[in-house]
Amino acid sequence: MKAIDYWRLCEKLSVRQAAILIMGEDPADYAYGDRVEKPYDALVQALYNGIISEQVEGDIAHPSEYGADDSDSWVNIESLKSWLTGKGINSGFFFPKVNDTPNYLDPDNPNFSPKLAASVYAWLAVTGEKRFTNNGKSPKANIENWLTANAEKFGLVGPDGEINNTAIKDQISKVVNWGVKGGSPSTPVQEPTHIQQEPTPPIPDVEPAPSF
User: Fold this and answer.
1) Cβ–Cβ under 8 Å, residues 120 and 105
2) CB neighbours (10 Å) of residue 76?
3) What confidence score (pLDDT) does residue 33 get?
4) What pTM value is reported for the model?
5) Domain ranges within the chain, ordered by starting residue
6) Less Cβ crowding at N or C end of the chain, within 10 Å?
7) Number of Cα atoms under 13 Å in the Cβ half of residue 32
């Protein structure tokens, strides 16, 4: 997880923290008293109004002629989420998208392997897209063509802009290729059974490989 994600473990937050998180930023990046840019002030005021009108469960600390203390004032997270939804806000930090991507295909995983991901996506594409079905080419040729077309997405392009054909032809495509017997038919013999099942996960953005 990213550092900001750990804020989701909190059951309540200060108004200051909540406003910064709604902005999509990490409260830990701001020291006490640091000025926060727009739309921070508007969000804090909206949260105070929500607490006063009892639409948001929370408490405003030290209300006085000098104003409230946004660091000591607090809001309940579940109440805050309901309030945000009522305001038409259903995306951002408090509404994380469910990540159904397997760990081995997640670029944020510390053990992510671009070549492994390239192998999996190549197999899914060549066996699942109709343009590769019985097109007169061998499985390996279709795999190589797909990898070449998507090389940059998997770090298979060097700093000089050259595609790493060695990795594509001698490494990845050999792992993916199922047509290892001589005289193997074009890709595939029959319509793949998984076409109408789970959709192919989105291809991740991978930093170009610095060297081969």
Assistant:
1) yes
2) 18
3) 74
4) 0.51
5) 3-86, 99-212
6) N
7) 4
